[in-house]
Amino acid sequence: MTRSQRITRGITIVVVAAVVIAAVVLVSNLDRIVKTGVETYGPKITGVTVTVDAVHIGLLNASAHIKGLVVGNPKGYQSPQAISIGAIGAAIDPTTVFSQKTRIRFVRIESPEITFEGGLDGNNLSAILDNVNGSERSGGPTVTNAVGNPRPPKKYEVDDLVISGAKVNGAIILFGGKQVSIPNLSLPEIHLTNLGQGAGGITITDLTRQILQAITTSTVTAVTSRANNLGGAAENLGKQGVNSVKKAFGNLLGK
Hints:
alpha+beta, 5 helices, 39% helix, elongated
């Protein structure tokens, strides 16, 4: 082997070793990177705190698992959180992970706990949805490259998304701060399909909007279906209390 060949071989070995080391470092830190991303960009999209207990990305089987996702409440609401999700699982098309548009085969959101606060001026879920809509109109949070320059937002396609086992608790807030409790409500399964199909895909902001819109609509429908019971529970507040309940429901339904 000539000296030139030995030098070329040595450079090749160094480059390969550097790539392997970089890959190992990336893989070993991928869970932390994704967790940090969710907790960094989630609040920019929703306008409220977003925290995660744990994230696991499985590169071999192209899967993702998130545990303990908590979405906070907007200012002015009493409960510390609006939505708490025990577990989220997803399967990703591995051939699209590093493409401009990543295809997610399915997402399973299991047993979310929703705390609903509705009053004469609206409700907490709609307030978060308004924040997301505002973020979407502004183009969503800015993502930058390694040198700080903005880059085009990554796009996604979600073929199948199911939200199951959701429970709703909370209260309708009436005049003078009086409340009528919302009983423990079970939501029907929410099923969304073919999100972001086509070359354009959807951004993470739009995906968040569609999921939150589905949760908000299902929650408000479940709450308003108990209007008679809640109205009866407010009878001890007098005629004004019952009228306030009815008005609150009208606002929830957009009337």
